[in-house]
Write a structure and sequence with these properties.
Elements lengths: L1 E4 L3 E7 L5 E8 L7 H16 L7 E5 L2 E2 L6 E3 L10 H9 L3 E5 H12 L7 E7 L3 E7 L2 E2 L36 H12 L5 H5 L9 H9 L3 H25 L3 E5 L7 H14 L10 E4 L6 H11 L6
Parallel strand pairs: 1-4, 4-7, 8-11, 11-12
Antiparallel strand pairs: 1-2, 2-3, 5-6, 8-9, 9-10
Length: 313
C-alpha cells in the first residue's frame, strides 16, 4: 500500500510490482491549521478503504514535508499541521503493520526512476507541483537526501525578496508564483480584469474558483485561465533554469496535481527555461517532461519503500 498526503488531499492505493494501481481511496486533509489527529485519521481511513478488507503487508507514506533522515518524523510541513510528528510510529500502532515514511517528492522521483520517464537517466530532477512545490534530485537512480534528509525543498527558495507571503513563514518563495495555489490566485486576480467562464463556474464568487476549474476553463480556451497558466508556467521555467544551472541534470520531470494540465503548463515553462538558462545556446538543455505516473507518482513511490525495490539512499 502506498499513501500520498499533501496540502489538500490524501491518496491511498494498492500498488503491484509493475507500478500498476489496482485500488485507490481519496480523503481531504485538514490543512496547516488542522489538528494532527485529523490528518492521521484521514490517512487511516483512506488506507483501510483502499485495502478493501484485505490484510496489510506494509504501508509506505509519502508526506509533503521535511522528513528526518531516519524516516521516522515529519519535522516541518508548510501545508500540514506536523512539527516533529512521529508519524511512522503513530501509523504503525494504528494499522498494525510495518510503515515506512519519506518526503513526497522523493517518493515521486523513485517511482519515475523505476517505472517512469527518469528510468535510465544518470541524473534527474523531480519537481512536484501541487498546493506548493516539492522536489528531489536523483543521481544514479538514488535520491540525494542531504545532511538532514531535507534536500530538494525547491519550493522554498526565495525568488522575489519581500514578495508574496508563504505558508512556511517567509516571503517570496518560488511556490508562491508557480503552484496550484499560485494558479488559483492568478485566475482570481485576472477575473477582475476581463470576462471569464470561471465566473459562471464559480457562481460569480471569485473565492470559490479552484485549480480544476482553471484547468477546465483553459481547455475551453478561456483567456483568463490560459493567462493564469502562462504565468505559472513561466515561473516554473525560470526556477527550473536556476536549478539546472546548479545541478545540470539529464532530465527534469514535472509531477504533482498541476502537471495534469500538460502542455498548457509545460510549453511556457520550456520556453522560459531556454530563455533564462545560462549558456543555453552552448549546452544541452535538459528535457522538461511530465511524470509518466502523473499525480499517482508519490503514492507509487511510497509503495516502493515497502516493496524494497528501491534503496532509500
Amino acid at each position: 500500500m502506498g499513501v500520498d498526503i499533501g496540502g489538500t488531499k490524501v491518496l491511498a492505493g494498492v500498488v503491484d510490482d509493475t507500478g500498476a494501481v489496482s485500488s485507490t481511496a481519496l480523503r481531504t486533509t485538514p490543512g496547516r491549521r488542522g489538528v494532527t489527529r485529523q490528518a492521521e485519521d484521514a490517512m487511516v481511513e483512506a488506507i483501510l478503504e483502499a485495502a478493501g478488507g484485505q490484510p496489510l503487508a506494509g504501508v509506505g507514506v509519502a508526506a509533503a514535508g521535511f522528513v528526518d533522515p531516519a524516516g521516522d518524523r515529519v519535522m516541518f510541513a508548510p501545508h500540514l499541521p506536523w512539527q516533529g510528528e512521529p508519524l511512522r510510529e503513530l501509523l504503525q500502532d494504528r494499522l498494525g503493520c510495518p510503515v515506512l515514511l519519506d518526503n513526497d517528492a522523493n517518493c515521486a522521483a523513485r517511482a519515475e526512476a523505476h517505472h517512469g520517464v527518469a528510468g535510465g537517466a544518470s541524473s534527474a530532477m523531480m519537481i512536484t507541483m501541487g498546493t506548493g512545490i516539492g522536489g528531489a534530485v536523483l543521481v544514479g537512480g538514488e535520491v540525494l537526501r542531504g545532511a538532514n534528509g531535507m534536500a530538494g525543498e525547491f519550493g522554498h527558495m526565495q525568488v522575489v525578496p519581500d514578495g508574496q507571503p508563504c505558508e512556511c513563514g517567509r516571503r517570496g518563495c518560488w511556490e508562491q508564483y508557480s503552484s496550484g495555489n499560485a494558479l488559483v490566485r492568478n485566475a482570481r486576480t485576472l477575473m477582475a480584469e476581463q470576462p471569464s467562464v470561471l465566473a459562471e463556474m464559480s457562481g460569480g464568487h471569485h473565492e470559490r474558483v479552484t485549480g480544476p476549474m482553471v484547468t477546465a476553463a483553459a481547455e475551453e480556451g478561456d483567456l483568463v485561465a490560459r493567462r493564469a497558466f502562462a504565468s505559472v508556467g513561466d515561473w516554473l521555467g525560470v526556477g527550473t533554469a536556476n536549478l539546472v544551472a546548479a545541478l545540470d541534470p539529464e532530465v527534469v520531470v514535472i509531477g504533482g496535481g498541476v502537471s495534469a494540465a500538460g502542455d498548457k503548463l509545460l510549453d511556457p515553462a520550456r520556453a522560459a527555461l531556454r530563455r533564462t538558462l545560462v549558456g543555453a545556446a552552448h549546452r544541452s538543455v535538459p528535457a522538461l517532461v511530465a511524470a509518466r505516473l502523473g499525480p499517482e507518482a508519490g503514492m507509487v513511490g511510497a509503495a516502493l519503500l515497502v516493496a524494497g525495490s528501491q534503496p532509500r539512499g
